[in-house]
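Standup notes
- DV: blocked on the single-chain target, sequence here:
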Amino acid sequence: MRSSPLPRMSRRGRATIGVLIGVFVLFTLLGWGVNAWTDWLWFEEVRYTQIFTGVLGTRLLLFLVIGLGMALIVAGNLWLGYRLRPQLRPHSAEQATLERYRMLLSPRLGTWIALVSAVIGLFAGLSAQSRWSQWLLFRNGGSFGVKDPEFGVDVGFYVFQLPFWRYLLGVGFTVVVLALLGALAMHYVFGGVRLQGIGDRMTNGARAHLSTLVAVFVLLKAVAYVLDRRAMLLEYNEGAKLYGAGYADVNALLPAKEILAYISVVVAIAIIVFSNAVMRNLVWPGISLALLGVSAVAIGGIYPWAVQTFEVKPSARDKEAPYIERSIEATRAAYGLAGAKSAGYAASNLTPPPSLATDTSVVGNARLLDPQLVSETYTQLQQVRGFYDFGPKLDIDRYAVDGKTSDYVVGVREINYDELTPQQSNWINRHTVYTHGYGLVAAPANQVVCGGQPYFVSGFLGDSGKEAQGCASATEQIPAKQPRIYYGERMKADDYAIVGQTGERNVEFDRPTSSGGEQYYTYTGEGGVKIGSFTRRLLYAIKEQESNFLLSEAVNQDSKLLYVRNPRDRVEKVAPFLTLDGDPYPAVVNGRVLWIVDGYTTAATYPYAERVNLQAETADELTGRGTFQLARENVNYIRNSVKATVDAYDGTVKLYAFDETDPVLKAWNKAFGGELVLPKGDIPAELAEHFRYPADLFKVQRNLLTKFHVTDPGDFYSGQDFWQVPNVPDAPDSGQKQPPYYLFTQFPGQEAPRFQLTSAVTPNGRQNLAALISGSYVDGQPRLEVLELPDQTRISGPVQVHQQMSNNGDIRQQLNLLSSNQAQVQYGNLLSLPFADGMLYVEPVYVKSSNQDAYPLLQKVLLSYGDGGSYVVLANNLTDGIKQLVEQGKRAPGATPPSTGGNPPTGGGTSPPVLTGALAEAAGKVQSAIAEVKAAQTSGDFERYGRALKALDEAMTAFQEAQVAANPSPAPSASGSPSASPPAAPSSSPSANG
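- DV (later): unblocked, structure below
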């Protein structure tokens, strides 16, 4: 009597398992269905249903094609293994042991094969559906118009085609290995492959089947060698310490992989022929596989290693030079560095010029408010209610008020649900009453009042600016017709709001009134998903796991549900193919508050380009403290191709093409019907005025420029001219990088002041200033500029300057008086401002009391000019500080400003005579005229330059007349001291200052 190898389960047990499986599947499908349905409703609200259908359809397609294809291949090979089983099996202990497994499998063999194949297909499909982005680029990608330097293949192949081909190759290897293992197991169980007994260990059918699968594997290896030749242009080159194929790769490894590809084809043919047609055994196929392995080690490993070790290393600088040049060119092209404008800046003037006191382009626009420090000030002075919040960091933007453009520190008064009291936090209040914030609050970045407070000019909640200011009145200079904030950065995933008409009275808290009361409101915008029907309410009750959707009277037939309310999350959901900047910012555009979010298209397969990690490259002091941390994404190509906006009132999302030449953006737009992204020409002019150079892109470009500003391969290999980004000036030991800062200013070579993002860099391993890097928009086009100082400059870098200023004896005493157990000194942005062939440093000093409700107040301003230590002042305000600097410059020995491009006179030798009376006055006018000429040269204003030259000529004539009047019969003195002479005039060439 034969016994079953496994005991049979009772009917009740089978029923219980069936019910449990059914419940699991039901809830899984229910959860997936609810999420899919609510996602569809959300995409329908924002009018981007093509994203939902496109992504979902692509994922389902890949799941079915790859999953079903792999399942069928595995199932076919398992079934073939069974069909090729021998009818007669020799008697042996091995076969007797296998008989019980054959008895288990044979009655339901089809079921077992289907089950195993379905599991494999399920996991393969789940893996495949995550490759939807690669498939869409594969289908819709075009040409870059740039060819790689080794094979002459368009870069589009590497970006759009290669990633998906490599994925398909990986799928091929996986399915062949699984089919081979499954077929081998099937042949073994049913006697086609034996380990014991007399005669052949493998039947002819099993040998043909298995050898064919091995041959297919080897053929796939040949394809892999071909693709590897292309992929070598993406890999790290140890010899040159850069990405891309180097000397040994091109001259040894590339030919080796080509030879191995041919050998693989030969071996695959040999396996099939010798196993089944000639020898009918596995000896020669085994020898062929062994030869392939030996060839892979010798040709693909030992030979390239020998070339690298004995040929490249002894003269790596020369051997790798052409390939370093390739990497430099590719990196600069891939990251948008090729168009960076570089210019020299002598920075030879170490004495504060008199023109500092009259300048309006640089000094007049110097920003004093630090957007990180004054966020507490905004909250305390403009909060009005405890549940309003401005976040840990504000933003910088520029506005034209009364015909004058300047930068403003802006923040949005948002609802912070974490600050609601327990009474306010019940479901009704949290989701139907406290639904929105109110107003964009702004203050000029270079103006303070009331002992260090910002001068607020917008976002008032009362009837006048005086109530909001607390001590100074102002008019609403940046008015918003619709100031309500339903969508903002403080919103979390569960911070949904139910809005709409709920009866005859308004129930949403709107804002406090000037009389001390409260005003209520009902949302009238287009945003939100209608949830008036019972079906919709049931749907969202399941999604949010909240019964009040069904039970509460606050939800009626007119209600709408607002969710996904964070503007960055909203854009990310609409455009999942974009990498978003970590610092969205608000702007008032045509009377509405819009969130502006910069979107990047990226790639990781641009040949020869340096690969970076976005999370690491964009991290600095502000990461996680007001700016979002980017994901750990490795890229070697990036473009700021999209400017996205989110309406703070109704949540409308718009995507504008900012770089219409970007091939990656073209591919994505084509993938979703060609109308996903609005053309650049549709960008409203008032919106374009608020575009700013994106911070995260600038950080990546700045970090790369610390190395890739060097374009000579030999110099790059030596690395002697590399730069580094300095640490935070007032906390250099923290290891955090100094964030770039936005300024409305004018740098040398620029025609007029512009809004730009700026960062200082220092030489690698040193602290003096190496260059200033800035990013801005000129006529709507991005412009990256590098102002490079001489290698041996005496100008200090940010960390050095802060230490020199704060450790100055007199200044340290004053700072100690400001700091005590009851107060703390905090330092704002240290600004590096090139001016008059020198460097002006400005650092605001805040003081924060230890009281619970205290906020930082701007009390002092640190200023330095020149090398950072010679001329330093701590003043009550910027105007006084500039005056003190100028006075220090006038009193300095040899204070005459140098001629253009030269150095100031230094001590040593005989001092010049002291001028008095009319002669001293005339000399002062000459110095002022010289400073104005230099300032005009720097500004590039030729009309101003002409006036300055005329004024200088008049001043020189007046000085000579005063000299004649003071010395009617000049004669050499006994000591040989020279008579008084006018200061040296600058060169009349407009290009003297670059």
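- Follow-up: Residues 463-468, 896-914, 969-982, 984-994 have pLDDT under 50 and may be disordered.
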